[in-house]
């Protein structure tokens, strides 16, 4: 188990290095941040001086090594736009994104499990067909369209929910700006969470349903039936437990994807998290912030997947055995 | 006992006062597409920063809707001699810090402007200002200069006492201008303007409170502005429609009609002064050096049609750079869409069979920029010019523009001086690295006459003579088709209809929120 964990972590570090390299490579071709800093009147010579001062004229590898050196010490550079270290900017924006992802995950987990099980157990019932039909629509509708639709129905037409932003936030633990503790904050969370969950929810319903149906066909479930165990126990203990394994794997990957999907949701709702920050940093060519976002999200991916793999190893010994060799 | 009664009375009085204030408190929830990059007005010369400056600082004079100058911190002014203009400053004006506003602050501000990368170009004709006494200051130019008053609209006096000294946080002078890092001025302000910044989270929210000691007590009743940047246009509109905000700018063209037809909302639009153009590079494409070819292209481009179809009427078709109201606006230049004439000109020039050319345009800089470029390509194909178009985000575009990678390049220009000569200086004078003239002339158009007239106009102080020169330049550019003019983008603001939005907005797009009255 220890060797397995160490190996996974080493792989994670390698992946992070590759991500940072690619991120840095993109940055290098992303236009000139100085353009965004100055007005139209500033002459090319003055712009060149500013670039020189910022160290943007150095060769690619020199800049990359400098970046790595600083990154190891926890310094990812400075944001030109915010005029602060990017770690500070990202730390300030992360709670918004993580809370959004958390709420969306709650919706996904809370709804997909009962709906998926129901659709698997009673595949012929009308409600199951409605669930499956609805999930197709959900999967095929782009997030930003869902978001705009929600805004137009619930904010503009009905006036029930606020159309943008996070509302009132409270600072907890001295650094975490939370919207979960105020009524306004929660009201602001509803629509973005639904929009963000709209892609994952149908996917999970379908996944749970198909896995569950497969398990229900397996020998040991048949054996359980033969033993005369109560249907509830067969469904929820024998069958569902074995459905979970693939769901955990996919769930880990999807959680990472969800963080990335916040880009769209946050932009539409003017949600001040890492996603909208990333889009803005791209349009402003605020390169340090761009690269850091890519690295941070990459790190979240790697960490989540490593944890999932380790849990998976615990749950399913087969993985551990092949991992050992 | 007495003390207790006294205390009760004091509390009641305080409570009453609170109610009285509450009754008058007017909050404006404002949403724009972006928020100012800094609290330091000299850090960037951009529309957003000037909008901010008009809220927190106050200029010496400002533009009135009729194009005249309205006294602000300067009450009166007079021309002393060819190179000196004397400003008599308003007395009893206070900065947000509580310091008294004096002539020294104007001297300090001008000196700082001349240090700013972005502003020093505008003020290159000025020497240091001279304080005559506490309330009188002379602006002195190196040579006679026709735009002294226009430049005075850019002088937003900063609190010299507040911005002098060493900042404890970074050990650097407080008046340092820094674009990419912490500086005192980037995070603190003390101006004389109607609003003070009380809370700011960059990119999220800025809260302004009305400055209690603002010199002009007779105008505006907004006590608090909560400003949220909302970059997505549909979200911005939805926020207004749902009542989450009271005032938005700009309004996307697609939603103009909807807002106009919504009860309780008010839409104000105005023809703007940003000209959108295509430049034809004569150095890259020898065909473009022939005025006949350029004229043919001008004849083949249907500005009116584009304004109607693509811009949905939300622009004003242009035949020249200067919008109406500018000194250089030449009323004799008219629309000239005529494909038959264009074909004839191509034949005369010897390009009956046309030729090929490349073109670049941004896709997120101007309203509908990509579609405009595509329409241009389609129209030029009718006279045999086959154009291969490449569009890109603005973050990449300007480097490509500078490198002149294509034969035809798109550029929009707003004159910082609200004056015609600015267009000519940057877009059509012969490119000269030394002087910086023609810096954005990627067409490499070069005409001795245009150069001479533009330079002469800058030192001409007789308005009538100056206007004549500038109009003549527009005529030359038109006759030689130095460029292809498209249109001036319109400006738009939308708000709830319980405020006097139409009175505070202007063609520069600097809404004077200090004068806003909410009923």
From TrEMBL, chain A:
Alphabetical UniProt keywords: Cell membrane, Membrane, Transmembrane, Transmembrane helix, Transport
Record-linked InterPro entries: BPD_transp_1_N (IPR045621), MetI-like (IPR000515), MetI-like_sf (IPR035906)
Topology versus the membrane: Multi-pass membrane protein
An annotated GO cellular component: plasma membrane
Matches recorded under Pfam families: BPD_transp_1 (PF00528), BPD_transp_1_N (PF19300)
Subcellular location: Cell membrane
GO biological process assignments: transmembrane transport
Regions crossing the membrane: 12-30, 96-118, 130-154, 189-208, 243-264, 290-315
Residue stretches making up the ABC transmembrane type-1 domain: 94-312
Family affiliation: Belongs to the binding-protein-dependent transport system permease family.
Name the record gives this protein: Peptide/nickel transport system permease protein
TrEMBL record, chain B:
GO molecular function: peptide transmembrane transporter activity
Signal peptide: 1-25
Keywords: Signal, Transport
Pfam families: SBP_bac_5 (PF00496)
Signal among keywords: yes
GO-annotated cellular components: ATP-binding cassette (ABC) transporter complex; outer membrane-bounded periplasmic space
Residue span, Solute-binding protein family domain: 69-432
UniProt entry tagged with the keyword Signal: yes
Gene3D superfamilies: Dipeptide-binding Protein, Domain 1 (3.90.76.10), Dipeptide-binding Protein, Domain 3 (3.10.105.10), Periplasmic binding protein-like II (3.40.190.10)
Listed InterPro entries: Peptide/Ni-bd, SBP_5, SBP_5_dom
Any one Gene Ontology BP term: peptide transport
Family: Belongs to the bacterial solute-binding protein 5 family.
Protein name in UniProt: Peptide/nickel transport system substrate-binding protein
Organism: Desulforhopalus singaporensis
Taxonomic placement: Bacteria, Pseudomonadati, Thermodesulfobacteriota, Desulfobulbia, Desulfobulbales
């Amino acid at each position: 188990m220890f060797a397995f964990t160490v190996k996974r972590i080493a792989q994670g570090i390698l992946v992070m290095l590759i991500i940072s390299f690619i991120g840095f490579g993109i940055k290098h071709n992303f236009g000139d941040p100085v353009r965004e800093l100055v007005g139209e009147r500033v002459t090319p010579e003055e712009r060149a001086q500013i670039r020189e001062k910022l160290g943007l004229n150095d060769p690619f590898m020199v800049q990359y090594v400098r970046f790595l050196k600083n990154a190891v010490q926890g310094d990812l550079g400075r944001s030109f736009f915010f005029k602060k270290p990017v770690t500070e900017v990202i730390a300030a924006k992360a709670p918004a994104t993580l809370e959004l992802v958390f709420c969306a995950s709650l919706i996904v987990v809370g709804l997909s499990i009962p709906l998926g099980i129901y659709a698997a157990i009673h595949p012929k019932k009308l409600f199951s067909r409605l669930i499956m039909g609805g999930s197709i629509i959900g999967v095929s509708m782009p997030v930003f369209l869902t978001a705009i639709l929600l805004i137009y129905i619930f904010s503009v037409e009905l006036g029930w929910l606020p159309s943008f932003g996070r509302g009132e936030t409270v600072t907890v633990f001295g650094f975490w700006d939370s919207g979960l503790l105020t009524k306004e904050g929660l009201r602001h969370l509803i629509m973005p969470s639904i929009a963000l969950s709209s892609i994952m929810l149908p996917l999970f319903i379908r996944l749970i349903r198909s896995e569950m149906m497969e398990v229900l066909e397996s020998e040991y479930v048949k054996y359980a039936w033969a033993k005369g165990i109560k249907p509830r126990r067969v469904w929820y203990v024998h069958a569902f437990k074995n459905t979970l394994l693939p769901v955990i794997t996919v769930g880990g990957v999807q959680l990472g994807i969800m963080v990335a999907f916040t880009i769209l949701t946050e932009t539409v709702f003017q949600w001040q998290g890492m996603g909208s920050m990333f889009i803005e940093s791209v349009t402003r060519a605020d390169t340090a912030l761009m690269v850091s976002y890519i690295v941070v999200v990459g790190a979240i991916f790697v960490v989540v997947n490593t944890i999932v793999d380790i849990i998976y190893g615990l749950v399913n010994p087969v993985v551990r055995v092949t991992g050992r060799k | 006992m007495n003390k207790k009664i006294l205390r009760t009375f004091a509390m009641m009085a305080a409570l009453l006062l609170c109610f009285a204030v509450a009754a008058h408190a007017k909050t404006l929830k404002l949403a724009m597409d972006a928020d100012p990059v800094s609290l330091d007005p000299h850090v960037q010369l951009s529309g957003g920063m000037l909008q901010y400056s008009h809220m927190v600082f106050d200029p010496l004079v400002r533009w009135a809707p009729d194009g005249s100058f309205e006294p602000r911190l300067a009450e009166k002014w007079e021309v002393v001699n060819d190179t000196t203009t004397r400003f008599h400053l308003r007395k009893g004006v206070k900065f947000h810090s509580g310091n008294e506003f004096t002539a020294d602050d104007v001297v300090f501000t001008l000196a700082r402007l001349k240090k700013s990368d972005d502003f020093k170009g505008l003020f290159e004709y000025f020497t240091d200002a001279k304080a005559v006494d506490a309330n009188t200051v002379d602006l002195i130019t190196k040579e006679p200069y026709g735009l002294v008053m226009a430049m005075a609209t850019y002088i937003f006096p900063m609190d010299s006492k507040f911005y002098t000294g060493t900042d404890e946080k970074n050990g650097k002078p407080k008046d340092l201008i820094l674009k990419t890092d912490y500086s005192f001025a980037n995070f603190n302000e003390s101006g004389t303007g109607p609003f003070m910044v009380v809370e700011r989270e960059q990119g999220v929210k800025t809260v302004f409170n009305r400055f209690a000691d603002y010199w002009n007590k007779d105008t505006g009743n907004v006590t608090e502005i909560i400003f949220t940047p909302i970059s997505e246009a549909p979200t911005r509109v939805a926020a207004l429609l749902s009542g989450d905000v009271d005032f938005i700018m700009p309004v996307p063209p697609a939603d103009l009609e909807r807002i106009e037809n919504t009860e309780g909302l008010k839409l104000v639009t105005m023809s703007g002064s940003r000209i959108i153009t295509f430049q034809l590079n004569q150095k890259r494409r020898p065909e473009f050096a022939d005025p006949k070819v350029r004229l043919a292209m001008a004849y083949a481009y249907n500005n009116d049609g584009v304004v109607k179809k693509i811009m949905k009427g939300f622009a004003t078709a242009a035949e020249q750079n200067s919008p109406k109201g500018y000194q250089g606006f030449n009323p004799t230049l008219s629309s000239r869409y005529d494909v038959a004439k264009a074909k004839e000109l191509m034949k005369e020039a010897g390009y009956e069979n046309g030729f090929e050319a490349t073109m670049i345009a941004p896709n997120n800089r101007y309203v509908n920029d990509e579609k405009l470029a595509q329409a241009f390509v389609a129209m030029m194909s009718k006279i045999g010019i086959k154009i291969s178009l490449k569009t890109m985000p603005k973050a990449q575009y300007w480097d490509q523009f500078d490198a002149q990678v294509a034969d035809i390049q798109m550029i929009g220009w707003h004159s910082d001086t609200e004056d015609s000569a600015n267009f000519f200086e940057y877009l059509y004078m012969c490119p000269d690295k030394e002087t910086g003239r023609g810096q954005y002339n990627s067409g490499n158009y070069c005409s001795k006459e245009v150069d001479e007239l533009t330079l002469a106009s800058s030192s001409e102080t007789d308005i009538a003579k100056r206007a004549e020169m500038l109009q003549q330049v527009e005529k030359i550019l038109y006759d030689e088709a130095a460029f292809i003019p498209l249109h001036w983008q319109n400006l738009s603001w939308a708000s709830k209809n319980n405020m006097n939005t139409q009175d505070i907005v202007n063609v520069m797009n600097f809404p004077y929120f200090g004068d806003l009255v909410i009923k």
